[in-house]
């Protein structure tokens, strides 16, 4: 739970832990090792999220929109 991780993850595929929670992180990894179906599901969910939300073209468009709003407001 640091930085902007919450902005580009979802609970369907990511587990976020407080800083220093090595026990929680270790447990999550072991659960994935024991449940390959869950690992596969989360991998597919992560890929779908990236394809729908983090494409470079979409990010570039959003960035240009922000710059356009800034320039419009400063006139």
**Dominant shape:** elongated
- Amount of helix: 55-70%
Distance between the termini: 39 Å
Strand content: under 5%
Query: Order of helices and strands, N to C?
Result: HHH
Counting helices, strands and paired strands, the structural category is mainly alpha
> What profile does the largest beta sheet have?
none
Which residues sit in consecutive blocks of at least 5 with pLDDT less than 50?
none
- Number of helical segments with 4 or more residues: 3
Total strands: the figure is 0
Radius of gyration: 17 Å
Query: How much is the average pLDDT?
Result: 90
Features:
3 helices, 0% strand, mainly alpha, 75 residues
Would you summarize the structure shown here?
The chain is built from three helices and no strands. It has 75 residues and is mainly α.
Q: Explain this structure to me?
A:
Helices cover 65% and strands 0% of the residues. With 75 residues, the chain is mainly α.
């Amino acid at each position: 739970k640091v930085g902007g991780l919450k902005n580009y993850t979802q609970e369907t595929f990511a587990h976020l832990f407080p800083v220093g929670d090595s026990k929680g992180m270790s447990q999550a990894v072991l659960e994935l090792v024991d449940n390959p179906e869950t690992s596969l599901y989360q991998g597919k969910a992560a890929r779908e999220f990236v394809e729908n939300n983090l494409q470079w073209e979409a990010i570039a468009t959003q960035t240009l929109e922000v710059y356009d709003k800034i320039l419009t407001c400063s006139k």
